[in-house]
TrEMBL record:
InterPro entries: YbaK/aa-tRNA-synt-asso_dom_sf, YbaK/aa-tRNA-synth-assoc-dom. Coiled coil: none annotated. Pfam families: tRNA_edit. It comes from Microbacterium trichothecenolyticum (Aureobacterium trichothecenolyticum). Gene3D superfamilies: YbaK/aminoacyl-tRNA synthetase-associated domain. Residues 42-160 form the YbaK/aminoacyl-tRNA synthetase-associated domain. This is Prolyl-tRNA editing enzyme YbaK/EbsC (Cys-tRNA(Pro) deacylase).
Length: 180
């Protein structure tokens, strides 16, 4: 099992994508100090591989999934945060919250170009300001959550409450359903 070295994210902007560093810099300093970053092997960035290699639980690992909802010619985008032990309710809860007739996962190229982050590292910190930020209540309730750092070579570790306090964040009960 590989080890992780936790560092203050605000003091190590080289370990996160530029939009993530900018978002952390704008946070209340008390909140920013609660965010840690750890370098990881980019080949192990995918959730299951990361958890196995670094001894982290799937039950504290959250995935940021970019969803687009369309109604007529209006498209709304959301960054949705759900635990790795759950499955995002794209066609139910997310679609309704986006007031869309149809909701789908955003194309990878769109998500990467609009966030300025790497695929597999997209995180809610630093998403475009016109996006919705939907956080499953299970994530918000955790004392420590693992999320992407905007790059595949690092992970952020922070309280769920910090995620819930991000600008525009909506904490939603049952945004995701437990995987059976």
């Amino acid at each position: 099992m590989s080890t992780l070295t936790f560092l203050p994210a605000a003091e190590n902007p080289h370990l996160v994508a530029a939009p993530v560093a900018a978002a952390i810099a704008t946070l209340d300093p008390v909140l920013a100090t609660r965010i840690e970053v750890a370098a990881v092997d980019p080949a192990l960035a995918d959730t299951a591989a990361f958890c196995e290699a670094y001894g982290q639980g799937l039950d504290i690992s959250a995935n940021c999934i970019v969803v687009q909802g369309t109604r007529g010619d209006v498209t709304r985008t959301a960054a949705c945060l759900a635990l790795a032990t759950t499955r995002l309710d794209v066609n139910g809860t997310v679609r309704r919250l986006l007031e869309a007739r149809k909701a789908t996962f955003a194309p990878m190229d769109d998500a990467v170009s609009q966030t300025g982050m790497e695929y597999g590292g997209i995180t809610p910190l630093g998403i475009p300001s016109d996006w919705h930020l939907l956080i499953d209540a299970r994530v918000a309730a955790l004392p420590r959550v693992v999320v992407g750092a905007g790059i595949r070579g690092a992970k952020l570790f922070l309280p769920g409450g910090v995620l819930a306090s991000l600008p525009g964040a909506q904490v939603i009960e049952d945004l995701a359903k437990p995987v059976v």
